[in-house]
């Protein structure tokens, strides 16, 4: 401890010499003491021996500025101020003891890391990158090669490896799950142990959480894509809100906005905007186009093993139904485009259905009653009415409206053909049309 008022008193030589030595000692020891000097000067140094803090007096000589804390045990210097400022236009430059610049902070706020400089964040595991409040802060020994960027991203990873979590709370429930990718706020936000998931988009696979260490292989890309999948595995979902009703369904492939939006089944493949969006429990169905699963009186919402080809408006143009064992192809004029699978239609007694329109020039129409087994074949062209080629069954097949039985009729010089049920009860019918298109 050495402090002095820096005022040499008018006194005898021995006392003067001692006074000068005390002043020099105070200067040499930075005015060290357990409290600040009683006499102060602008720009005066002071070292507090109790707190081990070094101060310098300000220019106004009315306060001390804390400069640093000196660790007297480890012989280290610690910056204790809350702010570091550059005094010129060169910004801040951080160099290592070999004189090489490693990090530069420009006045414009750009941070540049020198070539060969790596960002390594400390964790109990190895080779992890953690950036953000709470990001990856539970990683334990064995939790290696993880990337956590964003507030609470991967915050519960312990021994999980090779996970990439980017975004607020992305993958924040993963504990020992491996090889998952979660990009976006709350993406893969419930999964703890599931492996090999890819979730890209806010809320994608947010509720996925298989029981135990499972190779899930789910892929969901888009806002809330597959958001409600819980234990389902091997689903591929691409598009905003696509597959957002799946919980336990497996191996669905859904591509397009809102594609399969009500689907809970398995093994479905839907491609197109809102494709299959009305299908619920149906399984093993394939749809190409915007057909939603219940349009133009073709309803496959709860049925299985259908293949539907549709246009951009959702009109089914081709339909394969496995229990019928064949395809029904149609343009917009064909009955299969407006009724249920494979041209199957339920027509009430007295009901009339238009089965062709302006696209048909000439056509064969086959009518089969799936209940009674009755059947008939008709022919018609634009210039003529209908002609009955052949028929068999308990009820008659006619070419005029209003007669008892099954009536297929049209007017001459018209493209429109109609079917009428006059059998007395509702009938389930398969109607197939083979037509030459009018040009």
Please describe what this structure looks like:
Residues 331-342 have low confidence and may be disordered. The protein has 439 residues and is mainly beta. Among the domains are: 13-78, no CATH class; 341-437, Immunoglobulin-like. Strand 2 and strand 3 form a beta hairpin. The radius of gyration is 41 Å and the shape is rod-shaped. It has one helix at 13-28; strands spanning 45-48, 53-57, 64-71, 76-78, 92-95, 101-105, 111-113, 129-131, 147-149, 164-166, 181-183, 198-200, 219-221, 236-238, 253-255, 269-271, 286-288, 294-295, 298-299, 306-310, 316-321, 326-329, 344-347, 352-356, 360-369, 375-381, 386-392, 397-398, 405-409, 417-422, 427-437. The chain is built from one helix and 31 strands. A 13-stranded mixed β-sheet has the order 8-9-10-11-12-13-14-15-16-17-20-21-22, with no helix packed on it. The chain has a five-stranded antiparallel β-sheet with strand order 23-31-25-26-27, with no helix packed on it. A four-stranded antiparallel β-sheet has the order 1-2-3-4, with no helix packed on it.
Proportion of strand residues: 25-35%
Percent of residues in helices comes to under 10%
Annotation, overall tally of beta strands: 31
Low-confidence stretches: 331-342
The overall average pLDDT, rounded, is 89
Question: Distance N terminus to C terminus?
Answer: 110 Å
Radius of gyration, taken over Cα atoms and rounded to an integer in Å: 41 Å
Structural class: mainly beta
CATH architecture of one domain: Sandwich
Please report the number of helical segments.
Answer: 1
Sheet with most strands: strand arrangement:
8-9-10-11-12-13-14-15-16-17-20-21-22
Query: Which fold does the CATH topology of one domain refer to?
Result: Immunoglobulin-like
Shape type: rod-shaped
Q: Main β-sheet: number of strands, strand sense, barrel status?
A: 13 strands, mixed
